[in-house]
Amino acid sequence: CIPGLARDVAARGTGLVLVHGSGERGERALESLGRIPTATDGVWNAEDAEGRDAVERATRTLLREIVHELNEAGVSAIGALGSGRGLLKLTAAGLAVGTASWLGDLVRSGVVAVVASLVTHEDGLVEVDAARASGALADALDLPVAVLTTRSVDREGTLTGQEDRVPDAEAVRRTDPKGGAVRAGMRAALREAAMADPEAIL
After folding, report:
1. In sequence order, what are the residues at sequence separation of 6 or more whose Cβ sits closer than 8 angstroms to the Cβ of residue 32?
2. Do 184 and 19 form a contact (C-beta atoms < 8 A)?
3. Within a 10 A sphere around the Cβ of 201, how many other Cβ atoms?
4. pTM, full prediction
5. Strand, coil or helix: 12
6. Beta bridge partner(s), residue 40
7. Residues 69 and 3 sit within 8 Å (Cβ to Cβ)
8. Any idea what DSSP says for residue 103?
9. What is the pLDDT of residues 42-64, one digit of tens each?
10. Which residues pair with 26 in a beta bridge?
11. CA 122, 128, 132, 136 torsion: positive or negative?
C-alpha cells in the first residue's frame, strides 16, 4: 500500500508531516525471533535489547521505503527519526516535542517530512506511539500532520468500509491534539484532504 500512499501524497501537492511506527514490519520482526507480538497503544511490546533492536530496524526500513516511494512519485520528501535533532523526547511527564522549527520550515517550503516514531531512551532508541507523536507535533507546529496506521488498509491495500469512515478510530483517540489537527489513517485521510482542499489540515 506504500505506492498508493505515495500517489495520494503527490496528488495533494503540499507540505505535510507523516508520522509512522514499525507497523506490520515490527510485528514480523518480532515473529522472526520466535515471539508472539503484543502491542500497547500502537507500540509493540519489545522488552529486551534484541526485541527493541528488531523493531528499530523494521522502523528504519519502513522509513526508507516510504521516502523512496514518495520520491519516485515526484514528491520532495525527507525522512527523519523522532530522535533526530531533538525533535521528540521522552521525559518523566511523557512524550514531548523538542526542537521542531527546522521541521516546520521544511514543510512550509512544500517538503513532505516522514517521521519515524523512534526516540532516545535510557535503553537506546525505542518506538513510541505514532498517534501520540503526531498529536504532539500537530500542536507544536500548527501544520498538516497525518499518522500512518496499518489498520486503515487491509492486507491487499484496500480500504475497508468502517475504516474509510473513521480511519483507525483508536489511533484518533490517542493523538489528542489540542487543535484537532491530526487525522489517523493512510490513504483515507490523505484522499479526504486532497478532495476537500489541498491546504486543509488533515
Report:
1. 54
2. no
3. 17
4. 0.77
5. helix
6. 43
7. yes
8. H
9. 788 998 999 999 999 999 999 99
10. none
11. positive
